[in-house]
Amino acid sequence: MNWRGKLNKYLASAYKNWIISRRNIFTIFEIFFWPMISLLSIGLLTKFLKVDEGMVSFLLVGAIALTILQVAQIDVAYVLLFDMWSKSIKNTFIAPVRSYHLVFGALLFGIVRGSVVFFILVVVSHYLFGFNFLAGGLLPVLIFLAGVFAVSAIIGIIVCISILTFGQKADVAAWSLSGLILLVSGIYYPVDVLPLPLQAAARAIPLTYFLEYYRSVFIPEQHNLVLGATLAGLYLVVGLILFDRAIERARRTGIMLRLSE
Amino acid sequence: MGEKPVQAQGICKSYRRFFGATTTVLKDISMEVETGEIFGLLGPNGSGKTTLISIFSTLIYPEVGRLRILGLDAHKGRDEIRKLINISTAKPNFPWSLTVKENLRHFGMLYGLYGPALSQTVRDQIDAFELGDFQDMKFEDLSTGLKQRLSLAKAMLNRPRLLFLDEPTTGLDPDISMKTRQLIQRIHEEEEISVVLSTHYMPEAEMLCDRIAFLRKGEIVALDTPQNLKNQLGLGEKVTVLYEGSVGLAELERLPGVINVFSAPGRVEMMIDRSAENLDMIVKHFAKARILDIIIMQPDLEDVFLELAR
Description:
heterodimer; A: 261 residues; mainly alpha; globular; B: 310 residues; alpha/beta; Rossmann fold; Alpha-Beta Plaits; 2 domains; 6-stranded mixed β-sheet; 4-stranded antiparallel β-sheet; elongated
């Protein structure tokens, strides 16, 4: 099989997610309604509290990061969720596909949707709250987005592994894990305010480092981007290995068959 | 071992349930499928047909046993095997909001098709399975028969050398079932592929299969050609007598050559061994009654099924 055939095995998931999203009215809620609600509520809160410019940037960076994360991670999770809901998992896994085909194809579509959401939020936050997301130049934005998308892929992989391990009931993970991230990775407050065990958990989440890196553009502070990127890369590789193992386990236990019935 | 489509030895499968209990689904399955044949897996519901087909198609793995598919070890060579096989499942399901064409395109991409070849393959399958009028219809809006045709079309996207069909006519109207069987026969002849088909419809197995394995409670209880199975089981012939008057049914059952008797008012069905030339004695047994009709039939696969499923 040449490179175009191999590439299409990745693009298959992006194609499926694109068609399903295009026909789903709730897509509008996912990429317009909820992101706007999130941004506006945090933006208005900063006005009410009359916080300084630095704090506005701190909170809006957190709000936007969380929103993009939620949009992109659900796209990765959708790669199995759509199959599970339509009971067609059997057809996907009878084909010669591996975990990375599914994850990277779905992530590609997640990146497109996340980027659209990012663009909208950046424009709105600039006009309504005077926050310039590009103040530090394009490179920090791209690094920040790469980090958010990598973490989205990791969360999406965890959801997929949960589905293949625990069956249909595990789809609740698709909406719960980002809540955990919200709590511990410094979305709306610095991780220093967390109790010590949660601080340790925060330091194990790559998003914490990408947030600190991007916020340092607006509020000079220490960051460790290299560690964040290393953790993200490591988790992605380990996640893909575990996803492949979860697929194999589901074949051994028969869950693969039950998910299609 | 040669490159037979399926070579299975001692395949066992059980599912773990709550509190560590296990349910055994397949016990010591050993069989081979020859190149180019349509091999049937028959058995009542819950006999393990779908599990066995799922194992052969590498969708799930056996706990014990050796399995080679198209000459490749089913575990070590699973990626290669999946390029060479495909499956059409019972109660076919696909992403609901994708149309027929989009579903075929999506699965074509998963098999590594691209560019004009992908478009052409999708068109060919739409034409071959007469889905042209429905190609822009969403899966959720298709009738059961059309869903089955889409499933068969999907199964042919990668031009498989070995095709698995799991109860391909379940839930279809009789006329659509017949068309589907003809379609399967046509694919088999035109594409020269080996087919493993599971069904609990006897006419389907009789029409399509070169050889048949009967499964009961996860075990193969018989494996041969349909004709040999009928001969081996010595089922005799089915004689139906319609009559008026009285007949001693208990005595009838004891006559030499009578294998079994089923009776209803004015009607007796018997399986008899005609080689013992007992037909004359049976007819004489009805001397006190008025015979309205006598029907003598060769046993069909249904009778084999009933005998083996007992």
